């Protein structure tokens, strides 16, 4: 007996059958059990944007407090929680997840496949991330928000000086987010390696997908360092180990090495996908392929590699040997070379482009303007002598906001305008988009440029107030005004999104005339992504052939997609894709509860292992799914 | 003396001297080297940034065909672009090498051989600075807090330590910062080349009092410094006035003496700042308040209001007792 296959059916009937097979029922049960990468990707991005709002509100409160000298709006206890929540939220709950998971939605579409490699692991990762973020913010509202900085340096966060459960909550939030981050990274690496459409050889992979791949490899190598760090911190605090207790043979600087061995690459988890977004937007609005594709790919690998050799530049003033520090000066400056290659190639692409001044392209221009400035101050702080003056001052605050907001949030905003139609089927409003862009440019620069000067005038970071006689008042006020303008630009974005969801112009499959495969399917894409798996013949397949050739022969009785070879993307086998399941959610719930309880007692790990094991066994209970060779 | 130091502070502020904690107003050869390097980097980086922005402006002003047909560079144009991009990357590398070398040589120029002429052991703790002037002769060792006096044009060795969490020592006008890490000590050399008053502040987040952990550096001519040092070595004189005697009695018999030392009295506590010559200091509570009787009274009445998180307890006492205590402390010149 043979299965019913796609070749046996007329297109309309095929689409109906595939929808039945892949679709998520519009019920609560369907919502809880779905493993559709688009559904999970949307949830991830929306959740991360909600955390962006929370992180942004905490920043606004800080700016209000600093707007005038000797201000008494909040005291140091609240302020320390605010900057810790701001940093932790922006890094762990917004920037890294949003960049990692916008790819969860987009990459399978760009690759011309129907799912991610491990759909259930992907669903599991979302729930763990959500529970970790909720735990952090609930703690904050219960006045137990961490107050030791997003870097949680020992001994301040250690058993002797970190009060209550605050540092433990921070450390456990790390466990949740890293667990989910690693799960997504593994899923996406395998997806990119094995699930590309036939014909998508290495040199036809979109730059956005390359960026995702490099980022996810970096995550796999960097995140374990911080999990070791945060777990040993919890152990020091909960069961009295002495990893960081210098009086008992532990080491205070060990924390900083472990944290920054992760923390510096983390900056690139955020920046590298952003460069992928830029490389996706520019071709669509210049009508040409990115200049220097091989150089761009190698630049991504170069950044990813160098990123692991820079961590000591966060520790230039800890008294490490000067000669060793010189090495890290060299490697920190060297990262400007691959970044420079990217900037030059983008400008070379724009140079002869048929520019279409839509909102996404504006944000690309804003990105280059702001990011280059932040990159150059990065070269400055890479110099040990200069760093001894500006380290831990507002100069550094200015620098990394230029890199992270200028270098990542601007491309992300461009990406939101670019892909919103693909996510929700409607275009965002262009007029509001232009306002959004200009307001964010002005607000951002007004908020952060003065901080360079403040740092040089001697203003340290993480101070909840400063005396009037320091003369820092006027620039701080300017910065506060800028911060509110910048926040207003996000309000405009929100209005634009809410309005466009209801009354935006219908997008159609390919509103920008772009060339990559995500635009080959409807907007929003159907649950099965593509009725037939496309065959790729070019780096911009839709520009080469608006109706790409397709592969046929997949079953319509179970979820199937095509597995291809690593380098040449030749069809290798047909893979059954896991259907929806409640077990990822159940497992995530159980594991989250165990992690939560282990903040209070180490025994939670012992007893919690039992329900965790049961949930995982039920999740992986063999069902005898059928697979076959192609 | 307190009034004089206070007046000096006030004069500085009124003179609009906002540069007393500024990296760009160097008053030592180290800080001058750092500022010079900073300006070199800033000028080169600004040129690079303007060049990129200029390129963007040119891109924007070039005529753009309005059709949507995807297009590719001709082989010739592609080759020319490749040459330009490659040259720019090489230029970037050259600039970075220049930056790396100047940075390296600056580090070399500002690294001192430890002369050990005068060594100050500075111990940071939540949230103040203990300063101990080392001497081979134990009777010449003196301890003070939050205010550092150094002779001008003479290298001073700093032995930096932390007692609890990580702090960072930073006097921008004189030198870059150096973290103070529990369990480690770092030696640095400090030299001011002009007399003056400089402010420093803890630069590593250290908890609730981080924002209010400042200190002052008084760079003085050698004779003035020597006079100060000799005076600091003297024990406090027994107070004569009845009010101050009452203050001494309170200081010795209430909680004060369990944390603070005043040489020449019964008070020998070790956890708080040494107050033997408190009245001669310009500020209270680690550079936080000018040292005036009103401010001192305010600080004693409610330390948490002045410096949230401070480890100094509020010692309940009548206003009269507090006035006596203030009179005693302000008289410790």
Can you offer a commentary on this structure?
The complex is a heterodimer of chains A (630) and B (333). In chain A, the strands form 2 sheets. A 3-stranded antiparallel beta sheet of chain A has the order 3-4-5, with no helix packed on it. Chain A has a two-stranded antiparallel sheet with strand order 1-2. In chain A, helix 3 (37-66) runs parallel beside helix 5 (119-141), helix 3 (37-66) packs antiparallel against helix 16 and helix 4 packs antiparallel against helix 7 (207-238). Chain A is 64% helix and 3% strand. Chain A has helices spanning 11-22, 28-33, 37-66, 76-111, 119-141, 166-194, 207-238, 252-286, 293-306, 322-334, 336-351, 359-382, 384-390, 394-424, 430-456, 473-503, 541-544, 583-597, 603-619; strands spanning 533-534, 550-551, 560-564, 571-576, 628-629. Chain A is globular and about 80 Å long. Helices cover 41% and strands 19% of the residues of chain B. Chain B has a 5-stranded mixed beta sheet. Chain B has a 3-stranded mixed beta sheet with strand order 4-10-9, with helices on one face. Chain B has a two-stranded antiparallel ribbon with strand order 6-7. In chain B, helix 7 (293-301) packs across helix 9. The longest helix of chain B has 36 residues, at 75-110. Chain B is elongated. At the A-B interface, helix 4, helix 10, helix 11, helix 12 and helix 13 of A face helix 2, helix 3 and strand 7 of B.
